[in-house]
Design a protein that fits this description.
By secondary structure, the protein is mainly α. It is built from 25 helices and no strands. The protein has helices at residues 39-53, 57-70, 75-82, 88-101, 107-121, 124-137, 142-154, 158-171, 177-188, 192-205, 210-222, 226-239, 244-256, 260-272, 277-293, 297-313, 317-333, 337-353, 358-379, 382-399, 403-420, 423-430, 438-450, 454-465, 473-488. The longest helix is centred in the last third of the chain and has 22 residues, at 358-379. The radius of gyration is 22 Å and the shape is globular. Residues 3-27 have low confidence and may be disordered.
Length: 489
């Protein structure tokens, strides 16, 4: 399992950086010193750090909370705990607290926290500048090197990320987390043999931990070995019966096998045994995805509405904004374009009312131009869609936003070109979009069909269907209509 902006995806702070010690202790040569006034806080933090690096967020949160209770000024503990939170609201509460306390810690600690803030704001240029400072000052800190790798990974600069992960393991060959990320980086580059080697090394380093088995299971799923993948996920659950990602992985495999009831039975087990609302939301999202695979969009909507109920309970407007966007995607795929746009408008309002940072809100406002432009294009209002695309491009460039919104510029122009019948232009744009999204492979198949290039259309359609993404709406959408598309070629 790996983290991201959403659904395991990397959020910038996937790997935490530093070793903790009391004010009277010092870091090893080249390591980042981190301050806390309490030895008890230090011990709790070390345990929380270890659990977090193994992606066991619920357990990690418990120890990080104890560290904060022992030292309420422990800035880095708040920054760690932010990434274990199950809601957008509590994430920003903890991150903002870490920022407010950053000057009480060491310079390395301060740089790290401010880089985390830049990442949460979508300020990729600022994030990179701060991380460059960090690794320049602390070139022998394996966590700093790993974090730089994660930053490149998050921008889909996979080859660069591999270089940084290799630097991290050169400093400390027993530091397990870079091997996990190496496996994913090689996987995304379709270097499956190298990915397998990295995951097997990861398993060997921490054999009693579920995440290495979970990550290897995801590689098996990626390569279409669904039954083997399920067995590997079950091995992870034998180690930790609450390891959420493995429930999701098993369900996704069943969806690919068209065993939809079995998929949802697994997710129902997760729901019944959930330890917090974050796990409950994960279960409901997985069920929504499963229903989309089965072409039951009405049931998918009901699942997202269950997620919204959980978010409303704690007034988490950031989570609600994401849920409304998810509803918009479902309505968009169902051809209910005005309903989709309505959801997107409500989502933007929720984002503006949330406790998210201004940078995050600005990013959401830019994304709103992209998603409404997409809906307008599919609706046939190409004039307004083009205006949205132009405004989106200008604002993304002005903000020097990260890779994903730059990908979305090309994706939006590609969608517009498809609607106009400008198939070569569509292909040229879509090849510059996010090719870790199976829907863009599907759109490329549409473009080549329009160009009467059946071989290329079949190639991209196969890539879309066999992408085997973990628990994603877009993967479900393209698999659902792949047979009809193939029959039309």
């Amino acid at each position: 399992m790996y983290k991201s902006l959403r659904d395991k995806a990397i959020v910038f702070m996937t790997a935490m950086l530093v070793l903790v010690m009391s004010l009277t202790l010092f870091a090893g040569e080249g390591q980042i010193p981190v301050t806390t006034s309490s030895n008890d806080a230090r011990q709790f933090f070390l345990k929380g750090q270890d659990l977090f690096e193994k992606l066991r967020a619920v357990e990690a949160r418990r120890f990080l909370t104890k560290a904060i209770e022992a030292d309420p000024n422990f800035a880095l503990a708040y920054a760690y705990r932010a990434n274990t939170q199950f809601s957008a609201a509590t994430f920003f509460d903890d991150l903002n607290k870490a920022v407010s306390l950053a000057d009480k810690g060491s310079e390395g600690e301060r740089i790290w926290i401010m880089a985390a803030k830049a990442g949460a704001d979508g300020n990729i240029k600022g994030q990179q500048e701060l991380l460059n400072q960090l690794v320049s000052q602390f070139p022998q800190d394996e966590r700093a090197l790993n974090l730089m790798g994660n930053s490149h990974f998050g921008q889909q600069n996979y080859q660069q990320s591999i270089e940084w992960y290799n630097k991290a393991v050169a400093v400390n060959p027993d530091f397990s987390q870079p091997y996990n990320q190496l496996g994913y980086a090689h996987r995304f580059l379709y270097q499956y043999d190298d990915a397998e080697k990295a995951f097997k090394k990861y398993i060997a380093l921490i054999p009693g931990d579920p995440n290495p088995l979970d990550s290897y299971a995801e590689l098996l799923m990626k390569t279409g070995k669904y039954r083997q993948s399920i067995e590997m996920y079950r091995k992870a659950l034998k180690i930790d019966p609450h390891f959420v990602a493995s429930f999701v992985g098993i369900a996704t495999n069943h969806d690919y096998l068209k065993e939809y009831e079995r998929a949802r039975a697994v997710l129902d087990d997760l729901l019944k045994n959930a330890r917090d609302d974050g796990e409950r939301r994960t279960a409901w999202f997985g069920m929504a995805t499963s229903y989309i695979h089965e072409d039951r969009f009405d049931k998918a909507v009901e699942c997202i509405e269950e997620m919204m109920t959980l978010a409303e309970k704690i007034d988490d407007k950031g989570a609600l904004a994401g849920d409304l966007n998810a509803l918009g995607l479902i309505y968009l795929e169902a051809g209910k374009y005005d309903k989709a746009i309505q959801m997107y408008e409500q989502s933007l309002q929720m984002s503006n009312e949330s406790n998210s940072s201004q940078g995050a809100k600005d990013g959401a406002a830019r994304a709103h131009l992209y998603i409404t432009g997409q809906a307008l294009a599919l609706k046939g209002d190409l004039t307004t869609a083009k205006a949205k695309a132009k405004e989106f491009q200008e604002k993304v460039n002005a903000a020097n936003a990260g890779a994903f919104q730059k990908f979305q510029i090309h994706e939006l122009y590609g969608i517009i070109a498809l609607k106009e019948g400008q198939y070569q232009k569509a292909a040229d744009e879509l090849k510059q979009a996010n090719l870790q999204d199976p829907y863009n492979h599907y759109r490329l198949a549409q473009a080549y069909k329009g160009l009467n290039n059946t071989a290329e259309a079949e190639k991209y359609l196969k890539q879309a269907v066999d992408f085997n993404a973990l628990n994603g709406f877009n993967q479900a959408f393209v698999r659902l209509k792949a047979d009809d598309f193939m029959a039309s070629l």
